[in-house]
Amino acid sequence: MDADFIPGRHSSESLTVAIIDQDPSYRADINRYYEQSEDLVSVIFQGETLTDLYEYLGNHTVDILLINVEATNADPAWYRNLLNYNTQKIILVAEQLHIVRETELIHENVDLIYKYTPMGTYTQKMLSFTPIGQDKDIFTSVNAAAKEHTDKKISLFYSPKGGVGTTTIAVNTAAQLTLKDKNVLLVDFALFGHVSVAFNLPQGTKGLSDVVTYLEQGRQDDEELDEVLRQSIETVSLQGKKLSVLSAGSPLKMAALSLDHTDRIMEALQRLDYDMIVVDSSTDLSERNISLMSNATDLFFVLTTDVAANWSMLSSVDIIRKLHRPLQNRYLIINAYHDSIGFPISEMESMLSMKVSAVIPHKYEQVQGYANRGIVMAEKPALKINKHYRSIANLIEPMFEKKEVAKRNGLRKGVLA
Prior knowledge:
Elements: E1 15-20, H1 24-36, E2 41-47, H2 50-57, E3 64-68, H3 69-72, H4 78-82, E4 89-94, H5 97-102, E5 110-114, H6 119-127, H7 144-149, E6 153-158, H8 166-179, E7 184-188, H9 195-198, H10 209-216, H11 222-232, E8 234-238, E9 241-246, H12 251-255, H13 259-271, E10 276-280, H14 287-295, E11 298-303, H15 307-323, E12 329-337, H16 345-352, E13 356-361, H17 364-372, H18 385-396, E14 411-412, E15 415-416
Parallel strand pairs: 1-2, 1-3, 3-4, 4-5, 6-10, 6-11, 7-9, 7-10, 11-12, 12-13
Antiparallel strand pairs: 8-9, 14-15
Helix pairs in contact: 8-18, 10-11, 11-13, 13-14
């Protein structure tokens, strides 16, 4: 991850950390870990007491303070004293789990961690803070006026990591919209497209290949381009309803798509007679995907509980901010969530400055079983997981009844409610 994307970083090349703990081996372990890692975190001070820390902070600035809870017992005014220093976040380290569960935090930039926790969790907590003097900039957003006045909705599903279920979600969201009598076009812009597999389309399906070839020839006739697109679209049936599918071309053709060519395709697709366009994309931040992100009216980020993948989202978010689409609706989806893991979703929201809009439970065997047989789950309306796909479709077009969608996508104490 590039240093420019670390929140709270000023002129230094890393996020600076001070450790206060009486155990020298604990301090040495953390210092050694960050010396060898690529997390751009640097331990610049180690001490045993808050007195040691106050003395150091008198002449130095530190971003993160990692302080053993026991060290604060000797100084009841510890937090008020630390307010005098330009510190971004304080993480209290507890050696007993009940302290983590029972302690009430006194500020959003004060956090708690169990001492014997994997280092990845330490790093995640270090990255999760609002820089002092700044308001939290929440990247996910919904513009109600834009939703009501957008005639042609383009919904893009994107993730910086493969294998998180982006295609499955895009396919089933498009299917649920179709079952509500919307005229939907599902487009596969992934480098190695799998939408055609989901619908068991014939192997000879060319999809976008002919379209890319047309553009590569330098031809500029919009009516011709529209006709090439129409000839490339397949129609599939879902419970008697028709869904149009434009599958991906060959990997070579998809990799050749430039920013201008992708823009032309998106402009042409909007000239066709569809209410909604649902787009599946690949993980790369190519010109193709940047064009798709710029054209999308509704942008869905898909992540799992994989911490490393979540960090990689930061660079994607930075690029999308630069596209400057203030009316764009942006959502975060957590896929394959399992209650038993107790993943701290609230911490991930803080790290990414994104709010979770929908959570899809872990149903790998069920999802994979239908996918292997080329059956779209919308064909099985009794499946409970369909309620979660309807919840996502309802974010694009609020037209589903309460009983049709998942009961709650809300979160309680950082985990699935």
